[in-house]
Amino acid sequence: MEERGKKADEKKKKKKKEKDNDYPNSWLITTIYKTFRGILLESAFFKLLQDLLAFASPQLLKLMISFTQDKSRYTWEGYLYAVLLLVVAVLQSLFLQQYFQRCFVLGMKVRTAIMASVYKKALVVSNEARKESTVGETVNLMSADAQRFNDVTNFIHLLWSCPLQITLSIVFLWLELGPSVLAGLAVMVLMVPINGFLATKARNIQVSRNTQYSCYTFENILKLYAWEPSFQTQVEDIRGQELKVMRKFAYLTSDSDNVLTAEKAFTSISLFNILRFPLAMLPMLIAAMVQTTVSRKRLEKFLGGEDLDSDIVLKTKTTHLDVVSYDCKTLYLSLLHFKILNIFILCEFSSVSLDIKPGRLVAVVGAVGSGKSSLMSALLGEMHSTKGFINIQGSLAFVPQQAWIQNATVRDNILFGSPHKERRFQEVIQACALAPDLKLLPGGDLTEIGEKGINLSGGQKQRVSLARAAYSQADIYLLDDPLSAVDSHVGKHLFEKVIGPNGILKNKTRILVTHGVSFLPYVDEIVVLVDGVVSEVGSYSSLRASKGAFSEFLDTYAKEQSNQADLQSGNYLFPQCIMDGRCTKYCTFTVGDICICDYKLYKACSSDISSYLLRKNSSIKKSEDADESKQGQKLIEKETMETGQVKFSVYLQYLRAMGWGYTVMVFVVYFIQNIAFIGQNLWLSDWTNDAVDYYNMTYPNWKRDTRVGVFGALGVAQGLFVFLGTLLMANASVNASRILHSRLLDNILRVPMVFFDTTPIGRVVNRFAKDIFTVDEAIPQSFRSWLLCLLGVLGTLFVICLATPFFTIIIIPLALVYYFVQRFYVATSRQLRRLDSVSRSPIYSHFSETVSGLSVIRAYGHQDRFLKHNEITIDGNLKSVYPWIVSNRWLAIRLEFLGNLVVFFAALFAVISRDSLDSGLVGLSISYALNVTQTLNWLVRMTSELETNIVAVERVSEYSELENEAKWVTETRPTEKWPEEGRLQFDNYKVRYRPGLELVLHGVTCNISSTEKIGIVGRTGAGKSSLTNCLFRIIEAAEGRILIDDIDISTIGLHDLRNRLTIIPQDPVLFSGSLRMNLDPFDRFSDEDIWRVLELSHLKDYVAGLQEGLQHEVAEGGENLSVGQRQLLCLARALLRKSRILILDEATAAVDLETDDLIQNTIRKEFSHCTVLTIAHRLHSIMDSSRVMVLDAGKIVEFDSPSNLLEKQGHFYAMAKDAGITREDVTAL
């Protein structure tokens, strides 16, 4: 922890120094070095000792060989050498393991420090800096880049240790062989620049995985519009480029392996064995360093980005909230969420001077894009102030326009880190009208909410968000249009109980952005914004009197029959008349859509109401059985984790993906290469015996030439085969990667929506990022190493047994011990790795959640709590990383000890049977034995790594085999023109979201004839949105059917169905890409068409005013457009598709009345020949429908024309009365 702190301070210092650069440069490495200096130096010391000891063995070997040659020496000398060999080897093992332990722990610490600082930075990063990277990219910094640093730090000491080993080897070789070493040296030196060149080539290997991220986030929209194919091709293209680069990279690395072959003739084998390691490592290290440089630049750019200027908002002790001449010519419009890509200069707050007294309720009104949300952001200090200041006294609570919900229980979302006080909690829940909803949720307030609040309806999310603010007991409340997402009567309830003059916040300062005209009479002050300028400020009556912009605005929209005077005469504001028609008789008159009653009458009515409420609540079905409610309550299941051995079928699956032909060829090629290697060494030992045979004689030339020739030929053959093997391997693995990835993508796009509701996005992205990365890069690598190691070990044992047949006796017990150690280790290591990858997901999930809720977290000032939470999740992950590191050391010590015993026995047998052995073979067998420790070690490590990595294939295939939704296209295809008339029939339609949950719709039956306009109304959670989901078969029927033009929709393909319907969804969703791509991803329409629909959706002027026009880049999630504009874009989408059935899902919730009017007119005109289903919160918008369907708890309670329903005085009548709609209005329409 203290290290993290230190690190952050250092960063701050660095940042100050280098402000002049666009972002501070190349400070990261030095900072890391300063922080972890201690461990670095310790590990360096151990590495040095180990390197020096490594050179003692060849010297002992030399003595040993001379001992076997000279038969007159005492036997004890031989035994002494054998024991010395053992001692040196054991010491060497111990030092090496100490070094490794320190290095790996260091790597882990570096990764943690980087992750923590990225998170910390994300909490304070300014909006401009945040624009530069999408959520996907920022998560990438935490996952991929931090991991790169981890990997490099593990082997950082090789930078000096490799050159040291090489130099020492060369010195000793010179002593052995004289100048002929230089031939070998020349070859090596030549290889180094080539490797350097390859490494730089490999640099361009990084392709980001962004489209994918946005793809899964908005999966439901893709489904509704049947756009999956378009996105699939986009991702496949990106992937294709990624694979091209990978294949190149693999070819490049294949050259660097065959360095040390031909020169081996001029050496003592064992020194060259020592040399093999550093020379193989150097190119790898260079390549890794290069990749890390890319990561380093990205991290530095992010960590060195601008911070939010915390001085914009002053907290000095004046008594009220001031916004003094807040000039924002270049106000970065940060619409509460993410990055706004372009600087909207719409916000000429040339000088907004507001002065808000404590305890007032101030309403901010204005048209779409007039800067209401920007004013909020400015108050939160998320803007760029050019001059002036804001002074806020006391704590803030903030309710954003689009509710931000955490993946936690309802209770945790509301408490938001405050202590739980039952009374206050209940009070807030009642006030926010959440009590009935909680009754319907399976776990009450302990029900878990999915990511982004996925299992709550829009209105419920908004109310939870409001409840969070109400519970926080702050001094100042910034409410950014919290009432737009809820039905009118719920809105009224909220205003009355929470926000309004009698609500639970009545003594706090409240700033309310609203479109609801009806609430305006009850606020203390109204601020009217026009194009970013405050045009008027004043109370309702004074603004009405002044006949300014506000007055016009009202005259256009408010159906007001009130004379202000009556308001003061003891009348009572009373929203509860919604309950049913019974109380409306007490209303003296209505203002906008609030019923005003005389106070005495109110008393009489309230007793009616309370009895009514009791009845209503008791009638809500209690769940039949406690067990039943438990099932399906936990929304997000724990991530599944395979246990035990990886099934052999998984390996087969990978080999199958590589292609059997490739697989067999790779095996054969590597096998031949190994035979060549052993042959070469046997030839060499035979050659050294010539020295004995031709003792004191001239060495014949023919003999020398054949010796050198055969040796060289074997060397070259080896080189060729290695190269060939690598090429084949590269092709095969790229093949496998392509097949696995496209299978996964293909399937994920076909998975039913339920899967995305119950699976956090982090988990899906994890499969595409981490696991596919493993399949791409780690598996081919470990597969190849494993093969080489296995063949190497077999070769070694073969040679030793050849030299000293005695040795076969020892092999069997050693193999047994070895086998047990390995089994024990692999099981542990594999499970730890699985735990590691499972405990990683929450880190990224929490991170992306934080990034999307930044403005809320900052407003409440909860940064520290989130930092703490992040530290806990990271620690949880480290709990499985650290044991893995230690288990590796445990294994290594045991294995190296075994290896050392092999050396000892090889030497011992050589001494025992020295009379029968020639010195060449002794040398060969001992030098091989010296090498066996390392190879054995690697073999186990590789086996385990292969098992570990193959888990990625297992995880990818798990998601490739998920149950799919119905086919996209089936045999029974409807005609081209279907649905020609657009008739809808629901036939006893029942549906539930997931098996094991209660029904959402209980047997809906109705007929809707062609070109009818149907309004659908009902309380939040009555099943309005579920109805539309059924039409698109996002959720499949439990019973019953839906017919469109007499075709049962469950018989045709999903794309045929979804392509012929059009929806304008509740949450307008846009993808990162051009505006054009958002409207028409398949390029089916001409530009004229697109401009035409933009004109119809009132966006033409806006788009024409953009520099790039249709090519204007939309940020991820459409964050650089206002919510209203996004909604209009969705309308444009619908106009383009021109289908016979149109569904509007609360499509106008986020726009002001004026735009709402425009949209309604467009829909009336353009869709006159269509069947239109409108789900509405604002009853005004459906009063002209042909019929209205009233839903309650998943049943249709009323279904008739609006005028008939008003006559009946049932549910609809109550709702209409409530919205201030009378029969006259209907007839007028």
TrEMBL record:
Sequence ranges of Basic and acidic residues compositional bias: 1-11
Membrane topology: Multi-pass membrane protein
Keyword DNA damage: no
Keywords noted in UniProt: ATP-binding, Membrane, Nucleotide-binding, Repeat, Translocase, Transmembrane, Transmembrane helix, Transport, Vacuole
Protein name: ABC-type glutathione-S-conjugate transporter
Region (Disordered): 1-21
Family statement drawn from the similarity comment of this UniProt entry: Belongs to the ABC transporter superfamily. ABCC family. Conjugate transporter (TC 3.A.1.208) subfamily.
Subcellular location: Vacuole membrane
Catalysed reaction, written as an equation: leukotriene C4(in) + ATP + H2O = leukotriene C4(out) + ADP + phosphate + H(+)
Cited PANTHER family: ATP-BINDING CASSETTE SUB-FAMILY C, ATP-BINDING CASSETTE SUB-FAMILY C MEMBER 2
One Gene Ontology term, aspect cellular component: apical plasma membrane
Transmembrane segments: 79-100, 181-199, 274-294, 657-678, 708-730, 787-820, 891-912
EC number: 7.6.2.3
Main location: membrane
Domain ABC transporter: 331-556, 984-1218
UniProt source species: Dicentrarchus labrax
Gene behind this protein: abcc2
UniProt GO MF annotations: ABC-type glutathione S-conjugate transporter activity; ATP binding; ATP hydrolysis activity
Domain ABC transmembrane type-1: 43-254, 664-948
